[in-house]
Amino acid sequence: MTNWIRACGLDDIEQEGARRFDHEGRTYAVFRSPDDEVFCTDGLCTHEAVHIADGLVMDYEVECPKHAGAFDYRTGAATRPPPCINLRTYPARVEGGSVLVAMPVTAV
């Protein structure tokens, strides 16, 4: 079961840009591709837990601001060391000008 939540407005993210958002004690990053698609990953680099949304976004890649490692934000794949662990990704879509992200519902 998934829960779609509003992360931000589409206009809050530049093309080839990223935005951080926090939800239930976790940090995520939302990306806007050159062709206006949206993607979501965990918000912390898997190498040193730096906010990945603060990194340089070019085409479909985000560069970690600390050690210049990189990830393909569409798949979460680590594409340049030092990170060797992929980022987790989450379904994202645009609806009514808002970016929605599917968050797993945790059992209580």
Instruction: Give the overall shape.
Output: globular
- Counted by DSSP, the helix tally is 0
Q: In the CATH hierarchy, what is the superfamily?
A: Rieske [2Fe-2S] iron-sulphur domain
Q: Say what the CATH topology is.
A: Rieske Iron-sulfur Protein
* CATH class value: Mainly Beta
Would you tell me the overall average pLDDT? 93
What strand order characterises the main sheet?
2-3-4-9
| Distance between the first and last residues' Cα | 13 Å
Give the CATH architecture. Answer: 3-layer Sandwich
Radius of gyration: 13 Å
Query: How would a textbook summarize the main sheet?
Result: 4 strands, antiparallel
Say how many strands there are: 11
Which secondary-structure class do the elements indicate? mainly beta
Assign a percent range to the helix content.
under 10%
Name the helix and strand elements from N-terminus to C-terminus, one letter apiece.
Answer: EEEEEEEEEEE
Share of β-strand residues: over 45%
Count of folded domains: 1
Q: Give the uncertain stretches in residue-range form.
A: none
InterPro entries: MocE_2FeS (IPR012747), Rieske_2Fe-2S (IPR017941), Rieske_2Fe-2S_sf (IPR036922)
Keywords: 2Fe-2S, Iron, Iron-sulfur, Metal-binding
Organism: Mesorhizobium atlanticum
GO molecular function, one term: metal ion binding
